[in-house]
Design a protein that fits this description.
245 residues; globular; 56% helix; two-stranded antiparallel sheet; mainly alpha
């Protein structure tokens, strides 16, 4: 009788071939890579659903399953971190800014005013102070803005959903050649120049998860889920990624 590792091998080999497609996006930094983003999002979703089946967790809602897979299988990437520039943008355009003590937001707003370069290191450095502020807020809309601007949730909404359903990335990010900084990477963006873009979508500081970084993250998820499944002697059931009845 085959072991769980042997039984699951076909599935994980298939997922690795999807990873290889994502990772091999060619040497041209300006080449169109939306196909890789589509496959990345679909593959992360599949791994997340396999993980949920093994853990006895729900496959719905889809976003929660996707985010849980990222957080559980790629914990070393700090995906629970909140993107402070994007949080500041959402609070500004949804009237909730005054509900929060301002310290971490003021640090960003000052940097934005002087066109200083923001980094994910600053997100992590300010995370304890930001969490202290978040824990003092009882207003549901404010909690929603914190949640939707966590890195893991950005990857679901602005990368997975936008790429899979719209063949593009969202207005909070951009697919562009990036160098330097530890990912994710921030870049200031010229706003107020396009009359067809409403002001609430003119994000001053945008976040980018380089495709190579996303591929590395996916590889980590696949390897971790394969190892944990084998250790638990858990066999992936047929139609494991389909919704429950």
């Amino acid at each position: 009788m085959r072991t769980a590792a042997e039984y699951n091998k076909w599935t994980f080999d298939f997922l690795r071939r999807r990873h290889d497609f994502v990772a091999n996006f060619g040497p041209d930094p300006y080449a169109e890579k939306i196909e890789q983003h589509v496959v990345w999002g679909a593959t992360v979703a599949a791994v997340g659903r396999i993980h949920a089946r093994r853990m006895g967790a729900a496959l719905t809602p889809d976003g929660a399953c996707f985010v849980r897979g990222l957080l559980n299988l790629a914990p070393m990437y700090g995906l629970e971190t909140v993107a402070i520039p994007l949080l500041a943008h959402d609070l500004k355009w949804n009237g909730a800014r005054d509900l929060l003590p301002e310290h971490p937001l003021v640090v960003y707003q000052r940097a934005s005013y002087y066109s200083e370069h923001w980094t994910s290191v600053k997100d992590r450095e300010l995370a304890p102070a930001l969490e202290t502020l978040r824990s003092k807020q009882s207003a549901a809309p404010v909690a929603k803005f914190f949640r939707q601007n966590r890195y893991a949730d950005i990857l679901y909404r602005d990368y997975r959903c936008c790429a899979v359903h719209g063949l593009d990335l969202s207005h909070k990010t951009m697919d562009a050649p990036v160098e330097g900084d530890f990912p994710p990477i921030y870049r200031n963006f010229g706003v107020g120049l396009d009359e067809d873009v409403p002001p609430e979508q003119q994000v001053r500081t945008r976040i980018m998860f380089p495709l190579g970084y996303l591929a590395e993250m996916l590889s980590t998820m696949i390897e971790r889920e394969e190892r944990q499944s084998a250790e638990a002697e858990w066999r992936i059931p047929r139609n494991a990624t389909l919704l429950e009845d």
